[in-house]
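Researcher: Checking consistency across runs. Here is Prephenate dehydrogenase again:
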Amino acid sequence: MNRILIVGGGFMGYSLSMALAARADKHEISIVEPNLNNKTLIQNKPSDFILYDDLEKVGIDFDFIIICSPIKQIPKIILKAAAMFSSKAVITDISSSKQHLNSIKLPKNFVSSHPICGSDKSGPEYADVNLFANKTVVLIHSESDYEEKLSKFWESLKMEVISIDLATHDKVFGLVSHLPHFIARAYKESLDGENINPKLFAGSGKEIERLGASNEALWDEIFSDNAKNIKAGLEKFEIALKRIRQKLT
């Protein structure tokens, strides 16, 4: 049985907790969730999770520490976890942008993860026990035994593991994830004041509008963290837009 600490009990963190709890080989799962509303929602759900409202209050060691917190908080949590817990634990995060990791000296037992799954919803009330199954997770290559251990952890949740370097990760996801969300945000804002009946939205418009309505605070942090790659992709997009716009004449 593994002891697992989830730092952040929002949509992703609580979905991960549920997925781990559903496995046949049971784990001891602890969750750190400082938000009182989220903590209350988790407490009201039937589970054996151990709940904390502050990382400082956790007094035991773990096999895995998974940080599911906002990007701006991650570097500080990594350093705190490395100082508090045994170096035998694998520390990872699940952020979709990784530039913030360059701001600190990463501990040897840290390997970054990016599960390619999620939702436009936020909060533990929308958690999905099947969110991770049959999806892909990207690991930032580290050439350490910790990466192999973390790879097996994600594979136990029926995820396919791909390992790439940090720069490639942020360039690729700047193009295939962050830029589409950026464009969708602009599309949604362009409709402000149009007062269109929601029943009239075609599938394509509905999907773009859904992306544009995703958690604004979360995506603002991603846009800021991976701004360089998003800007590079946006420049190419604007060139393509100018070219295809000629078809409207």
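Researcher: Does this match what you'd expect to see?
Model: One thing to look at in this run: The radius of gyration is 19 Å.
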